[in-house]
């Protein structure tokens, strides 16, 4: 299938003098490597090139690591969350100048189409060239940094430099008083978790179930608490995360490895949950049927978590999917969805630009929202392949990390010191 014309290219001009940078690239399932790649250049007049001062590894990156996203190509540079300093600007860019500190949205929006004008930047009509997505979904969502050619084929931020298309739309200024270690996460997880709770319409007194206590689930717990939820129940099988959520946010833990989720929730909340948010996603099959069907490619996404939510919320309750679902599922309980009047909401890729100025000014700059609570480690760029492996196995207590480059400043007081990954273990620098 031919690619669809877009408002920008996913390619950069060849660098002068063969300049290179260090970057994390995908070469196959469980095969990511730090390579020397061409340093990106301004290609379009609306571009900016950012020298990366901070990036991270996201739970959704693990779908790429496990080869579960379509149209990955060997050599694709990964990473969709990054901040940095403007290094060069296109001829039509007036908003930014060299030296400005900025954080990038994980999605690439043109700022001019119907969806962008409504603030729905993640649904931009003009930046994703994938005909496969267009065929599968009926429409395309916005191009994403570092997330395969299914999402536009743009090079990502687990690198020393990134080309940012439509830079006046896709970058946010970082105030002087906000360190990179706090600003970085406005790129994705702060906005994504907030979007999930807004879509769920969390109200004073609600009883909320959170499936999955990774970074998004933990930040959703914090937002639910700030929005007035009476009770928050967290479902996971990682003891450290359950313990952390209970101590930090008052989450009532349910370890599904020790107790059946449905029985546990019914005992804890006999009348049912008001709201349920899926922060886990399609890849965590529990039952043998779904494990076999996924292994045989008879389905791509398991419906188990969605079915649990539908049956455990109250009649006319609300379920939101904020974790990634990408394809097709079997055994979906459509009858319960209809007969109970459940509101099942696909959260979509969060429209970062709709929220990030408000969240920066009201919550991050004022220190009212504590994203740093879940940032457990700091690593160097060369450690990123090891981070993928350890994070995928849910080992070494990593919840969210800050990845520095040669452009980064020393760690801000009160944030994690530099560590390394050595033979699958976190060691001091």
TrEMBL record:
Which UniProt key words apply to this protein? Metal-binding, Oxidoreductase, Zinc
Q: Name one GO molecular function term.
A: oxidoreductase activity
What InterPro entries does this protein's entry cite? Answer: ADH-like_C, ADH-like_N, ADH_Zn_CS, GroES-like_sf, NAD(P)-bd_dom_sf
Domain Alcohol dehydrogenase-like N-terminal: from-to ranges: 45-176
- The Alcohol dehydrogenase-like C-terminal domain is annotated at 215-347
SUPFAM superfamilies of this UniProt entry? Answer: GroES-like (SSF50129), NAD(P)-binding Rossmann-fold domains (SSF51735)
**What are the required cofactors?**
Zn(2+)
User: Could you name the domain of life of the organism this protein comes from?
Assistant: Eukaryota
- Into which family does the record put it? Belongs to the zinc-containing alcohol dehydrogenase family.
PANTHER family linked = DEHYDROGENASE, PUTATIVE (AFU_ORTHOLOGUE AFUA_5G03930)-RELATED, ZINC-TYPE ALCOHOL DEHYDROGENASE-LIKE
User: What's the name of the protein?
Assistant: Enoyl reductase (ER) domain-containing protein
**Protein's organism:** Saitoella complicata (strain BCRC 22490 / CBS 7301 / JCM 7358 / NBRC 10748 / NRRL Y-17804)
Lineage start: Eukaryota, Fungi, Dikarya, Ascomycota, Taphrinomycotina
